[in-house]
Amino acid sequence: MNELRYVYAVTRPFEGVLPEGVRGLDGEPPRLLHHDGLVAVVSPVPAEDFDEAPLKKHLENLDWLSGTARTHEAVVGALTTVTCPVPLRLATVCVDDSGVRRLLDAGRDRFVQTLERLEGRVEWGIKVYAEPDPEPEAEPAREPSEAPPAQAAAGAPTTGRDYLRQRLSRRRARESVWERADALSRRLHAELSLRAEAAALHRPQDARLSEASGQNILNAAYLVPRESSEEFVEEVGRLTPKDRGVRVELTGPWAPYSFAGQSGNPEQPARGETGR
């Protein structure tokens, strides 16, 4: 049976150790594999889970996928506290240590270029959500001859015209929330892009997967020098108005996932790519 290695990230050699308590997918601290001036951060993983056929099935299992992603991100996040990592794509797996060395050899120039570009930089994430008031539940229909309740709820429509007027008012209010969220998203992205070294727009998140309330309008990432992070966060606060129905979420600092595979730099290798 092949001995497989899960590769979380690539770094330069660094002093110090990972924070205590960091565990990889095998439940043990990740191992540092040094090779020709680079370091791959790895864990041994079982072939029955990470060989090609079982891994393909696992990647269709959201529970397994989210658990693996949390561990992957925890390891990369711990690396960020002691060095500058180039995060690799989720489920990057090589056959034994020699496969990891081949991966480093094949991508050496690109890894080095990216490490030079990302050194001392972190990623901040911004999400903007539109959160209009929910539609009230419709009242059960009554027969024409049925008398209305003795005491109608406050604000309840008493005629068909009132009902249509309220429906139109609620629809306009919801449209106004979406328009304000869109305008804020455009302004935030334009201003923050000027204060970052690079910016990346991601596809809005599906609320069914993220479980976040509201509709995601902006999902963006910004590459910022670590020493400028405080000013960047203050700028986000300055640009964010108090607006009922529009929510801004700031996350980070993260390892620069969104900027580790840009043009001219290492692509985040897919499983087995150059490492088999």
Automatic annotation (TrEMBL):
Matches recorded under Pfam families: GvpL_GvpF
InterPro entries (UniProt xref): GvpL/GvpF
Family: Belongs to the gas vesicle GvpF/GvpL family.
Species in which this protein is naturally found: Streptomyces enissocaesilis
Coiled-coil portions: none
Name under which the protein is recorded: GvpL/GvpF family gas vesicle protein
Keywords: Gas vesicle
Biased composition (Low complexity): 148-157
Region described as Disordered: 132-162, 255-276
Bilayer-crossing regions: none
Compartment annotation: Gas vesicle
Source taxon at top rank: Bacteria
Source taxonomy: Bacteria, Bacillati, Actinomycetota, Actinomycetes, Kitasatosporales
